[in-house]
Amino acid sequence: MTMPRNTTVREPDVTNDRQGGRSATTPAVGIKDVAVRFRTKNRDVTALTDVDLDVRAGEFVAIVGPSGCGKSTLLKLVAGLLKPSTGDVLLGGERVQGPRHDIGYVFQRAALLEWRSARRNILLQAEMRKMPAELGRRRADELIAMTGLSGFEDALPHELSGGMQQRVALCRALLHEPPVLLMDEPFGALDALTREQMNTELNRIWRETGTTVLLVTHSISEACYLADRVVVMSARPGTITEIIDVGLPAERDYTDTMGRPEFREATTHIRGLLGAASAQD
Ligand SMILES: Nc1ncnc2c1ncn2[C@@H]1O[C@H](COP(=O)(O)OP(=O)(O)OP(=O)(O)O)[C@@H](O)[C@H]1O
Ligand SMILES: [Mg+2]
């Protein structure tokens, strides 16, 4: 099921039933006073400390911060791939106790199986979840059309451009209609123009699916173009320095957005917080 979004109103999506019948005010993701410490043979690293963040259902939150400040660690906590040393992580109000198979995860590299076509890479998600075959096929077709991959369903990964491969990875992550989509620098390896195009598409897909998104990026402009709110983190031990409300409508034309005062204000502010040397554009 896809939920069309209102393009300007930023109210919680009360019609979104992906919270398992919970109140629409229950955050899709809750991070409560979390700290993560890694103990290895040679050193103890405090990766995160005092992290508090609530993400509304249907909200798009971008996370920026210097390398090593714990951004990937934060996504792994939400996915249940890591346990916090202290504090709690909640998904739809429920404590995350182990790996969560209901979420979607997109990594920096598409990680596709070279011997499978685009379509069969997308359907891998359905096979792993033992989804009814017909449902998986229908959903894959919808996503292929939505991401502009029509005509390339049978292509092998090496026959696709980097941007197309990332689109396949995005389709695979969205196949089971995850309530939360986690993206860890998904466009970092793409050239600037393809990245722009993917940003525009991701904005549209987010509006069309109503999925809650947590995106880690090193690009301040990507964060401000895509997100409702941008979480700025400090250097290790990573903690939240500030959360910036970008204040733009959900539907965003790329060029128009770049010229808007709200966009310029947000990017300038974030650049100031991070220090020019540690951030991309
Ligand atoms: N499994 C682990 N064992 C030990 N230390 C770890 C582990 N995972 C991460 N760390 C440490 O935790 C800190 C945060 O790592 P993390 O990968 O979350 O950073 P990041 O913000 O995603 O960085 P980047 O922008 O470079 O991807 C780093 O100092 C890293 O060395
Ligand atoms: Mg990382």
From TrEMBL:
Residues 8-20 have a biased composition (Basic and acidic residues). Gene3D superfamilies: P-loop containing nucleotide triphosphate hydrolases. Residues 29-260 form the ABC transporter domain. It holds the Pfam family ABC_tran. GO terms for molecular function: ATP binding; ATP hydrolysis activity. Keywords: ATP-binding, Nucleotide-binding, Transport. SUPFAM superfamilies: P-loop containing nucleoside triphosphate hydrolases. This is ABC transporter ATP-binding protein.
